[in-house]
Amino acid sequence: MRSFDFLQLDVFASRLLEGNPLAVVLGADALDAPTMQRIARWTNLSETTFLLRPTQAGADYRVRIFTPRQELPFAGHPSVGSAYAAIEDGCVPMRPSLVQECAAGLLPVVVQGEGATRTIHVQAPPARIGHPDATLAAALADALKVDLPVAAVRPIDNGPVWLVCDLGQARTVRALAPDLPAIAALCLAHGAVGVSVFGAEDGGDAAMAVRAFCPADGIPEDPVTGSANAAIGALLHETGGLARYGRRYVASQGREVGRDGRVEVAVEEASGIVTIGGRCAVGVRGRFTLD
Length: 291
Description:
Layout lengths: L1 E10 L8 E6 L7 H11 L4 E5 L8 E6 L4 E2 L3 H13 L8 E6 L2 E8 L6 E5 L4 E2 L4 H11 L8 E5 L3 E9 H6 L4 H11 L3 E7 L7 E7 L4 E4 L3 H14 L2 H4 L2 E6 L7 E7 L6 E17 L1
Parallel strand pairs: 2-3, 4-6, 11-12, 13-15
Antiparallel strand pairs: 1-2, 1-17, 3-4, 4-5, 6-7, 7-8, 8-17, 9-10, 10-11, 12-13, 13-14, 15-16, 16-17
Helix pairs in contact: 2-6, 3-5
């Protein structure tokens, strides 16, 4: 029998049941990749992470990230949640700066506050932003059931690949009823984990509304998505769109699936480096046992 410490927590929310759930298996060095994938398929959450001893100098811990279908080099809510879990479990010392090792490299982590007010900020990998593609834009317009200019759609790779779409206004984002099988087919054809859409809010505590659809990975709509929000921040830096939102803004995501997540996004003016962050709430603590 192999037994591991286990946490399940909500990410990008200060209260349980409002964010994106994440399962974290701690001290998972004895597990191989196929077993990790089976566990991720079993938890059936958008992502499950496995905390390991670091293998690179300068890293405080290592994380492997799995959806029910595949391993990802980087993902936002798993990175934020794994850092929080590592601190909670005592795997790393409580200090303002940490370094996460993952398949996308070494990523700086900033820790602010303690306990329920603790906020974790993770630097996203550099984004590779694809060119506008008329065929992709037309297919995505059909799948989302909206009119789209070609320039509104860009493929962005920041670890996972996202098909990112600027819908202009939050009300358009929130009213979507997309064709999920068509989105799944598009994602598989383009090697993407999902489609992310965004638009400006008219007021309130968030500047932007975001939704992310990942049906090819068994997640029709992801509640709150760090890597998608990081991709959006990188796109806005590239296209000059940050003038509408500012270099520090809060994105709202999850209302359409009964959540209420908040993602803090910061984009450095000179480098375009994107940091995403938020709070976490632990819901389950226990032991995960395999025979």
